[in-house]
Amino acid sequence: MNQTARIISIYAADTSGVCSALYEFGGMTVIHDASGCNSTYTTHDEPRWYDMDSMMYISGLTESDAVMGNDEKFINDLVTTAEELHPAYIAICASPMPAMIGIDMDAIAYEVESRTGIPSFDVKTNGMQSYITGAGNAFLKLSERFTGNHADEGSDENMYGNGRRVNILGMTPLDFPLGTDKKIREWLKKNGFMINACIGMGTSLDEVRRLDRADVSLVVSSSGRPLAENLKKRYGIPFIVGVPFGTCFAGFLAEELRKAAEAKGMPESDTSGRKENISKKYRKYDGSIAVVGESVLSTSLAAAISICTGRGARVLETVGDGDMTQLSDGDISCDDEAYLEEELSKSEIVIADPLFRPICAEKEFIRLPHDAFSGRCFKKEAYEMIDTDIPFFNDLR
Q: CB count, 10 Å around CB of 363?
């Protein structure tokens, strides 16, 4: 049976992706699902839950409400809560049951906005896709409602300075340990860029409003790709895909960002990231090393390994709905456990989340925790690895 797992874990669902993406923007996010299910998200997929308040709720969908189609109860609960909490917006998303029985979430959002006057929208989810799809859809919806609605038109120069303005897209704790956003901000500033917006972590709704003012976008995970493409289409903002792993690859990535920013608005420019796989330019292929996980992080890491150690690596994309344009010849996407185990047997060294270890036989295994896969199990390890240089490079030389 395809797409099954009897040993390894599974990735966070699309509903968790929505909650993670929208956590810091001051809105109210509600999953239409049975009572109690919110604990899965808050206790396993969201490290900010214990230190930062956010309006994340579950609707408490009952069997009778689902069978009888009692949408009015859900609408009234949303309106009552919104009138008490005054969120900046209301986002709703569906678990498998509402998606399966065909509840019109768009209509519910429209009705709630009509009654409250608060911007409301539905983020398409069904509980059966990964966090990448959920977060990507959430970022896109948020931008469609708020980007370009500048709160203070007169503060432009004071806010940004004179450097090239860059958007950081797709930065969530599901892919990056808390604090990674600060490291990437520092790296960009050292390379002469001004941070226009960091969408997903260390952010605010004001940053969403000014996304259109950037010269270039840096997409650091698959969940940022839909928003980057939308900003390119609407405002002509080019984007580059990659994570600044290792000193050398980070330098090349910064140069690609500069070229893209300089070419903004030029006809037939190939700097949007659509036609060119940046990491592929710097990668060597060698099946002896396997990098397992989300496509943008994994291909960037493989490129950094090639540059810094002279060794190549293949990528095994295991989420299933990541940015497949980043994969090169020799890379594969495999979300089936048996197939993945077979492919891992072909490599000598495996770099992956520790929960992949049981299907790697006697291979040399390098631990790289990923919150979207193992939750908070390896939280301490993950926080020790947020530097832009990679601590295990010396082991690969």
A: 17
